[in-house]
Specification:
The complex is a heterodimer.
Chain A lengths: L10 H20 L3 E2 L5 E2 L12 E4 L8 E5 L4 H9 L5 E8 L11 E10 L3 H16 L5 E4 H9 L8 H10 L11 H13 L9 E7 L15 E9 L2 E8 L4 H17 L9 H9 L4 E7 H9 L16
Parallel strand pairs in A: 1-5, 7-8
Antiparallel strand pairs in A: 2-4, 3-4, 5-6, 6-11, 8-9, 9-10, 10-11
Chain B lengths: L2 E3 L8 E4 L2 E11 L7 E8 L5 E7 L3 E3 L3 E11 L3 E5 L6 E5 H4 L11 E7 L2 E6 L3 E9 L13 E5 L4 E4 L8 E5 L4 E6 L2
Antiparallel strand pairs in B: 1-6, 2-3, 3-4, 4-5, 7-8, 7-10, 8-9, 10-11, 12-13, 12-15, 13-14, 15-16
Classes of the chains: A alpha+beta, B mainly beta.
GO molecular function (chain A): ATP binding; lysine-tRNA ligase activity; translation elongation factor activity; tRNA binding
Catalytic activity (chain A): D-beta-lysine + L-lysyl-[protein] + ATP = N(6)-((3R)-3,6-diaminohexanoyl)-L-lysyl-[protein] + AMP + diphosphate + H(+)
Keywords (chain A): ATP-binding, Elongation factor, Ligase, Nucleotide-binding, Protein biosynthesis
Chain lengths: ~325, ~190
Amino acid sequence: MKELWKPTTTHNGRQARAWLLRTIREFFYQRQVLEVDTPILSHGTVTDVHLAAFSCRFDHSVTGAPQTLYLQTSPEYAMKRLLCAQSGPIYQIIKAFRHEGAGRWHNPEFTMLEWYRPGFDHHQLMDEMDALLQETLKTSSAQRFTYQEVFVQYLNLDPLIATDAQVARCVAEQGIDMVGELPDRDSQLQLLFSIAIEPNIGQQNPCFVYSFPASQAALARLNSQDPRVADRFEVYFKGAELANGFYELAEPGEQRQRFMQDNALRAQHGLPQLPLDEHFLAALESGLPECSGVALGIDRLLMLMLDAQHIEEVINFPVHRA
Amino acid sequence: MANFSTNEFKAGLKIMLDGEPCNILENEYVKPGKGQAFNRVKIRKLISGKVLEKTFRSGESFEGADVLDTELAYLYSDGEFYHFMNNETFEQIAADEKAVGDNKKWLVENDECTLTLWNGTPITVTPPNFVELEITETDPGLKGDTAGTGGKPATLTTGAVVRVPLFVQTGEVIKVDTRTGEYVSRVQK
């Protein structure tokens, strides 16, 4: 117990973090992307059924009534409000919080880099992400595959046309012994991706996977040519999921509908309903410029730079010592 | 018994699965940024002894298994049950053939064994790592044969058969490693 006051990092690791933050700031300064600052506490939160936010009580609200505030899981809504206010290209390095367990790649409090590029589609943003990764990880240029391509290559399963029964059979064929049932097709695809695809891609250089199924669009727009898929991408490197980006959904009606679908799904899972971020929805009403945005886990990027085996090696005081 | 969420899974936690108490050996948390989280868990089923890889949906809860290990001295077998005693409380517990299994050949009177109890009933009996047993029968070693040809079989008082060096004779007491079933040394009486 006596040792718990000590950081879990080395001096070398702390220097690497400082270098990384300086390099990122220089990268965006050169590209004239503005650093911004948005709140960690918000009245609204993410409705995604698989994300859980910390909440706390605020006793001094203007109405006098106790108010629930949420620690943000990503600065996405606030940054989009800035974009709606004509901020132009912006980035932020911020603490994000997720109410979930700690693990090799997870700490409930972590550092996120998020940036938005008006006028970029997701392919242009992938180009910029690739440049940043090459500069920080000293890798060669990343590979790019569609979600469909990696499923066909590693599992011989086409996720866009396979029947639910074929997806379920694929899970069984992978020798995945589930306790209980998976609630839906997307969960099965996510399990297959995590276990049978992620360990095989991006081993030498980072790998971008894009065109996720429309049912996993999150806040991405649907593809204009093929509405079965969304303009969403993820970055994988050496078994880690590093970043998630969207060609952003700008249509306020569809955004509200997706939030409400999330809440309906939460009800099915017996999870509480969550308040929609009305400031964010109002900002979309006023008009979000065409843009792409992406969030990258700084701690994971550091792990990969340092060849660390556990996130605790790059976070001074992980949650059990916090 | 309390329920345990997958968030509380860690090595050594005992939970009920398919009606059987299980010991968690390893737990890995898998969480896509957007999507369902999973726990990939290696477990040992405590009755069958089987080790399995299971995948759990994170956030689900499972009943804890009321399993505890206790050190008890072996007393005797009545042919159906094997009787053990707590040397401090003198409380006696009987284990059935199924719980003792193959380990019955290592049961030596007064040796402290580890009994794993589930809801108070023994489900496994683990003998000490080393036991001392007398040889009841083995071929007399051929004189001059010291080449160490892998030894010869020797039957012990409990019926266990162990390979011993050629110089070891009937009537001698030997030390055996119960985990491997291998001869360790002779014991001076």
